[in-house]
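Q:
Got a chain?
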Amino acid sequence: MSRKYPPFAAVRAFEATARNGSVKGAAEELFLTASAVSHQIRALETNLDTDLFIRTGNSVELTLTGRAYARKMTALLDLFDETTRTVKEAGQKPFRVHCTPGFAARWLVPRLNDLAFGDRVRISVSNGAPSTDFSSNGADVVIQWADAHVPGVITEPLMRSARYPVASPALREAQNLRKPEDLQRATLMHDETMDAWEEWFAAAGVAPPAFPRGPTFPNCELATTAAEKGQGVALAYDAVVRGTLEDGALVRLFDTVTMPFVIYSVAYKIARKNDPMVREFSDWLHAQVAAEGVAAERGLAQSNAW
């Protein structure tokens, strides 16, 4: 069924007159003559086949029908104005993304050229789990660690990954790391956030070192960076380090992996769920991970608490 609209200029003249309480006030607001405003209102009344004003001399008063119509038109024009401003500002303002250092450096930044507004993305990173307190984090979207529910926030699971050992090519050769048992004598990089070496050794059927050798880092990114520098072996997330492996800065050691789980999700305020830039950015992220075969099931995880 096709929509049938009255002339927009006539609606605008009517709404301004109703809101200002006079034709003169509307004319000043719209930069028109009073005669032009009156003409537009008459045209609208003809289109609607009803009187919207009672005219007495130079004054006008809304009819009951006019009062109801004006209330709805003011609400619609306010929404129209707000939506237009949002779209216009979206094309000018930076888009702020808060995430972990590893996600930023190894995954997001190398792909930003593929995002239509990638040049406007501003990234902030957190040493721990990124804050999803949108009242203080200054972010439009947070790439949240895991997929925990947060009050007032929509969480879309994004990426699943298993983990496996990685090392620099030079270290693998220097220490002759050829089988899982060789890691019992290697320096291992440990992750304070979620260390999984015991799980990996169990999956490989190898006893872990009695005394774990190697430093502990605040997050997996620092552990992986240390491995790149030849300081030891890190337990890296497959979905995050694929690009680093392709570049040759790291090599994968052995086929054994830990159980995959959701390592990242997209989080944003419930109030922003229909924001065009939030939606485009989220859709782009999901398309990227789907193409790489590391997508988590996208179903929304939303807390009912506020």
